[in-house]
Specification:
single chain; about 40% strand; four-stranded antiparallel sheet; about 240 residues
Length: about 240
Amino acid sequence: MTELRYLPDADDVTTFTATVTEASRDSVFLDGTYFYPEGGGQPSDRGVLEWDGGVADVVDVKKDHGDVRHDIELRSGEPPAEGTTVEGRIDEERRRRLSRMHTAQHVVSRVVLDEFGASTAGNQVYPDRSRIDFEPASFDEDDLALIERRSNEAIERDLPVVKENRPRPTVEEEVDEGRALLDMIPDSVDPLRVVEIEDFDMCPCGGTHVSSLGELGGITITDTTSKGADVERLEFELSDG
């Protein structure tokens, strides 16, 4: 199995070396990676793999039966042989934007749960925008203004963000109802990687995140759409931070 080296708290690492376990002209598997594979509403990282005699762009990264598959487009050379040492370089700006967006999603989800009792039914983050589906929810303009204001108040406090592994029973006991879909995480996953915003929010999550809320800059809600009975989709962007 590929070691997910960015967990639990190394999601600021964007250059690394690893060993090839399998490769073709289309994909590379490594013994360990800092590339984030698509999941949890967060797109994969992109970047470059380089080895003696070859360079490839990493255009997508996905989990594949316990391993991580780096989909590549060869720039030069032949695919690396098993046992080859490669250097990975993650697109740092893209990683930063996704980490900011994912952390902002946690902030907005917490605010909506606190203010309206609505749980996060689904989310999708992108480098330049994000969306969250809440249930049960139906927001008017005053509600949206409140969500935006409360979210930005948390950001202005520049609260620290802690990422660490914790025993599953402890997480199950401490996480607030409506803040985690624990039944969707196999019972065998223990410990759980937790993202905690100090004195504000705690949630099991495997995505990449910033280290303090001040890095988010500010949240602007851009749209809201009804997605069916009692489901409301909220979209937002971040100012430069």
